[in-house]
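Hi R.,

Here's the chain you asked about this morning:
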Amino acid sequence: MSTPTRPFPQHVIARKRDGHALSAGEIASFVRGATDGSWADYQLSALLMAIYLKGLDGGETAELTGAMMRSGEMADLSSVPGPKADKHSTGGVGDKVSLHLAPMVAACGVAVPMISGRGLGHTGGTLDKLESIPGFSTRLSLSEYRAQVGRIGLALIGQTAELAPADRKLYALRDVTATVECIPLICASILSKKLAEGTDVLVSDVKFGRGAFMKDKARARELALALVAVARALGKPTRAVLTAMDEPLGLAVGNALEVAESVACLRGRGPEDLMEVTYVIGEQMLILAGAAADPAEARARLERSIASGSALEKFRAVVEAQGGDARVADDPSLLPAARLAADLPSPGDGFVARVDALEVAIAALRLGAGRSRAEDRIDPAVGVAGLVKVGARVARGQPLCTIHANDAGALDEARAKLSQAIGVGDRPVHPPKRIEEIIG
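And here is the predicted structure, written out as tokens:
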């Protein structure tokens, strides 16, 4: 039997350039070329640009996602009893939901095999937050990952070399060819990694607004619909929660500061806005996994996981399993702390009219809490805590936030930026709506 002829890259590029739908074989050739080097970078880049300009239909996007998912090893968690669920966030400012939600869901009897990423630009990364815990390692092999999910029902790691290697190559090229903001390519990148990790069901938190990757709500909704449709086409029950990101989520922005806030959530002292988003995503995870019949039952189970201390115990267990100092679950002061702390006082009496998520993120970036380039080092101790929320009443001189810094010059820069980011007005302001829609 003869081996099918692989299509020439230039022919595939030309077909998409001219607006044709690509066949499964052409898409497979593209992904294989990204994985084994048989396509040159300039050919991969040319097709990425053609896709950016001409788009992919639903069938093409599903084919691309599946091919990228199968470009490396698939994490087989069939030996782990019970359902497996994960969540994904498109990224936001102060979004530390994964840190406490994963232990909450695991404490409800649903295993959470979570593979996360690092922050770049103004959005924080789950791995960076976790690695602010002294000793915590996110670098587990696939075999260690499988064993840990089986043992404690929870693993919080970074993408391994074996999982979806085509995505690493294509994402790097998208980053330097101005083709990042393409919904079919975003969809394939997200789902190829998430579906290769061995989860049974997936919930996506798709954010929109000033502090989100997707600023426009309509575009964010388009991405959410695509994620649900493509994942379902590949046999994975999926829902998407559309959430607002015009102000930071929670009260803290900065890696160790956000870990401390997640510990507070697990102790029943989480900020209202953060817990609202946490519960809605967690409810959908439990429902899809078959662990709850409806949102009310799911919410009750998640609340019990906090009240009983079982979610905090799961957090403690995963920190210990991955080499971290598990004492932070009881004493967050063991997390890295900045040398300097300064309050930003309110300029007058009134109501908080805005807390611009993007500007707060830039202030944190200047402190060293994020990275503007992939190779930048992060200072885990710095950031902003005690942020006021839109609608809150404040008095002159009352702290609008506390700046944590290790450099006096950076502190001054952040103070100036935050003074512009937080606005106080005379009239009462309604807090913003946080949950826009549940899709799927």
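One quick note: The two ends are 44 Å apart (CA to CA).

Cheers,
M.
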